[in-house]
User: Fold Glutamate--tRNA ligase from Methylopila jiangsuensis.
Amino acid sequence: MTETVVTRFAPSPTGFLHIGGARTALFNWLYAKAQGGKMLLRIEDTDRARSTTEAIDAILDGLKWLGLDWDGEPIFQFARADRHREAVEQMLAAGRAYRCYATAQELEEMRATAMAEGRPPRYDGRWRDRPASDAPADRAPAIRLRAPQEGETVVDDLVQGRVVIPNKDLDDLVLLRSDGTPTYMLAVVVDDHDMGVTHVIRGVDHLTNAARQTQIYEALGWSVPKMAHIPLIHGPDGAKLSKRHGALGVEAYREMGFLPAAVRNYLARLGWSHGDDEIFSTEQAIAWFDVGQIGRSAARFDMAKLSNLNGHYMRATPDAELLAALKAALPHLPGGPEAAARLDATGRWPALESALPGLKERAKTLVELLDGARFLTDERPLAVEAAAETLLTPDARALLGRLLPRLEALPEWTAAAAEGEVRALADEAQVKLGALAQPLRAALTGRKTSPGIFDVLVALGRDESLARIRDQAQM
Assistant:
């Protein structure tokens, strides 16, 4: 019988879902989907001082925005503390753990001595074999793992390969603190086992934890899940990813106007590849994804590449879908709520959809798309940008004045009919088309660039278009 693959994403709710965490979630999600398995979600909220409800909500919201669903209800690690302590009792009973009464001062002295002698600071095992009769009555013990002191611990990693750590380099780690609270190392092992996790896919910064956690699995007599430690993400300059590179929370990418599908595509290519394919659907990513194809070297995050990829997705998205995506994003975009209210008040949503073919050719993000569509939401009198103001010369305003009655007399308000009148007037006035079309664009949008000017006329409608031209015309 084939084992059902179970992965898990296990963030700590001490901040927002950052881009590195989002990629870890994506890889777990893709592998589970590719193998017909499940991805579970565990909130590792044992750091009570730093865990917040706001961060939990932000993580869940970020995953939902990215389209990464999980199976079942989220598991909260802190609520399982009794189960973690139960596992420690099992190890104590089997002689695989012991009570340690070393004081904080003694531990500090061990650390200082080791540092002075040029050794890594490690617990010296002083309570490892002492009889229970030596236990002091004035303090509660911590519980430590009775780790093997000879031989080696091996992690056969699906990405990093065979990793061998001499057991002499690993000390007896704490499983339960003296106040009875479980440590991270213990809780992760017990939770992964109880949740039936078969594959642990996480950042390579956890690789050193893998050996210690393997020892806990063995002490409990449990099978160790397969592990895959994925490379870190660096900036385009090769330095550790920072805010200047794009190490932001996922919600920041939504606010910058990125499409979830584009972000998924881009994150999938950070450390994983399928030949030379750069642009692929989520369905293709699921069909192709294999942990063994993840590279070992650090991936490089490049905001410019993400923006270009997002622009491709916007151009490839059908207009109705893109409008729906924009509507969903408006509450999160700068100026989005105000734009939505104005579009509602003027009834110009259909006009916006009709303008999308021209708008999305010029935009890489939904923010740029909304900015390009500002002519639909701006109120009269338009604030004309300085560059556009230079187009509105006295001669240009006079031409607009001559154009007005022609447009007012149009029996049908269509792009073709409007274009015919503009071209006829340009011929009559013996000027190039741009000498009239450019001032017309400035009058209608307040800008030098916009979608096709005749499409703008239709999008604004007869009354609004004529009113804006009238505002700028010299008659």
In short: The CA atoms of residues 114 and 121 lie 5 Å apart. The two ends are 85 Å apart (CA to CA). The chain has a mean pLDDT of 94. DSSP finds 21 helices and twelve strands in the chain.
